[in-house]
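Take a look at the protein record below with the fold in mind.
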Amino acid sequence: MLLAGLWLSSSSVATAQPLSQQDVAAVVGHLTRPMDTTAQAARNPRYVGVTLTTCPIQVAGQEGVYIYQEQTLVEAPGSPYRQRFLQIALSADAARVESRSFKPAMPDTWVGLCQRAEPTVDPEALGNLVCVVALRPSSLGGYVGSTPSEGCPVNLQGAVRLTNTIVLHKDGMDTWDRGYDDQGVQVWGARAEPYRYRWVE
């Protein structure tokens, strides 16, 4: 099992070279395949089965690459507990692919968006920018990245700040998603192992 320290070590990040729209397309292609954590939940009762559904969308009048993402408990299909719009773009210096996360103001409006034909949203429906994850190609294959070191603001189950490390690899995605209270104490999220999302064939 690969550990977070290995993933983020200098040996796991490919030599720095300017990235391109091919890298943006690779990240989008990786994220928009359906994934779930059912295999992990079957092995470890401390984890629950989660389905991750992501699809490309159009934002009316806007250029760029946008996707919609929702997470749903396997036992509660159709009732996502987390929804986000993501803009996937190169950083200004082309050194990273940035996943810019927006929290929709009216999430109920977008439940099941990926099942609609040619999903399109208005720019104002994206909501507020809440976090940015910066990804770089990994020598292990795929991409690896994280939130800023100070984390991102959140208001969820006692947490006021979250951090995340994301690894995109040949089997899917691993995430070290963690929430901290105002004293800096972790109150939820990954501890001994990441959340292991695996592609659903």
